[in-house]
Amino acid sequence: MTEIPEHLLKRSRAAKGKDDSAADAGADSGASSAAVTPAAKTEAVSAGPPALVAAAAAIGADAPQAPEPEKPHFVQAAEKRKRMPMWAMFLLFFVPLWAVSFGGTMQLPDVEDPLFTEAAELYNVTGGCAGCHGGGGGGGVGYQLNDGSVVETFPHVADQMVHVYRGSDAIKGEAYGAERADGRRISGSRGAMPAATTLHQIELELVIFHERVVLAGEDTSSDEYIEYIDHLRERLEAGEGTGDVTDEYFEMLLACSDPEITPGATGEGAVDDDGENICPGPHLEEE
Ligand code: HEC
User: Fold this and answer.
1) What is the pLDDT of residues 259-273, one digit of tens each?
2) Measured from the CB, is residue 211 less than 6 Å from ligand 1?
3) d(CA 58, CA 27)
4) Domain that holds residue 205
5) How many Å apart are CA 213 and CA 141, to the nearest integer?
6) Cα of 132 to ligand 1 centre, how many Å?
7) At 185, which helix (H) or strand (E)?
8) What are the CA-CA distances from residue 72 to residues 2, 57, 75, 132 (Å)?
9) How far apart are CA 62 and CA 49, in angstroms?
10) 149 found inside a domain
11) Count of structural domains, the chain
12) Is residue 279 assigned to a domain?
């Protein structure tokens, strides 16, 4: 299969028949091809002083002299130029497609980031959440979490930690979460959410990170969020937060939670000895 239109091939055949010189053939169809330039140059300067003619001959040395090949060199060059290799077409088509589908699902981080891989592991395997909420958070026995859903129920991290840690039986029949488009949640109305009491402090935070950021696609572009993620990663790498969720730690979570969202929350906030806010979740550290 050739991509040279028939009328152009006819033209080059006609040129060949009229005159066997490559220079003339080039000049005849010159308007359509840049590959013609050296040959055309040879012709243009051949009337000049001998030194120039010699130089021009050197420039045009690669122009075929005789006999003419089946297809003139400029036709061959044009054929080569027009073809895009199959692999390049493949890339052009599939790379954007892959990027879009990847961006849409956000199932896998593009680097081996322990923060993301640990969080995913907790959700999918160790914590067993995926069994009831789906690997992509689409829901099942438990509520859908993805598509912003869990962030609509829990605008803040601490409230969600309280809920996941104590489970739904602890507040059975009570309203929890923020006012959603479909109203407030009533605990136990869909089933039983088991208390995730086996998770360590940082594991509880990580599994919720996975639900909010990876599955629900929460906006993490604020300075607060970026700082929070850095802090979480630092603690993970330093091996901090591996203690159980003690009564004291749970009290802290209740203090960090919003009474309008979480039954039993005090909303007092929590600070360390230096007065730093230690509530889990994004908040700018005070200067
Ligand atoms: C045995 C099934 C099951 C497992 C395992 C499970 N859940 Fe649930 N989850 C549920 C059910 C059922 C509900 C709704 C309970 C209710 O009606 O109050 C729920 C509710 C939730 C909610 C509240 C969502 C909302 O919008 O109201 C969150 C958050 C949640 N689960 C997180 C988790 C996490 C994190 C894990 C893993 C540590 C987990 N779940 C494991 C069944 C499960």
Assistant:
1) 999 999 999 999 999
2) yes
3) 18
4) 100-256
5) 21
6) 7
7) strand 183-186
8) 14, 19, 5, 69
9) 21
10) yes
11) 2
12) no
Same domain, 136 and 40: no
Domain membership of residue 90 (yes or no) is no
For 197-248, the DSSP string reads TTSBHHHHHHHHHIIIIIIS-----SHHHHHHHHHHHHHHHTT---SB--HH
- The alpha carbon of 174 and the centre of ligand 1 are apart by a number of angstroms equal to 15
3-state secondary structure labels for all residues of 84-145: CCHHHHHHHHHHHHHHHHHHHHCCCCCCCCHHHHHHHHHHHHHCCCHHHHCCCCCCCCCCCC
Q: Please tell me whether residues 112 and 243 are part of one structural domain.
A: yes
Helix/strand/coil for 280: coil
In this predicted structure, the answer to whether residue 128 has a pLDDT above a threshold of 70 is: yes
Q: Is residue 54 part of a domain?
A: yes
**Residue whose CA lies nearest to ligand 1 atom number 41:** 129
The predicted pLDDT at position 7 comes to: 40
10 Å CB burial of residue 225 (0-12, 13-18, 19+) is middle
Nearest atom, ligand 1, residue 199 CA: 38
User: 193: Cβ below 6 Å to ligand 1?
Assistant: yes
pTM of the model: 0.68
Q: How many CA atoms lie within 13 A of 41 on its CB side?
A: 17
66 & 145 share domain: no
Query: Is 170 within 8 Å of 262 (Cβ atoms)?
Result: no
Look at the block and give the residue holding tokens 């033209």. Answer: 11
pLDDT of residue 102: 52
How far, in Å, is the centroid of ligand 1 from the Cα of 128? Answer: 10
Structure tokens at 225: 């969020």
Model pLDDT for residues 155-188, shown as the tens digit of each residue: 999 999 999 999 999 999 999 999 999 999 999 9
User: Both 212 and 151 in a single domain?
Assistant: yes
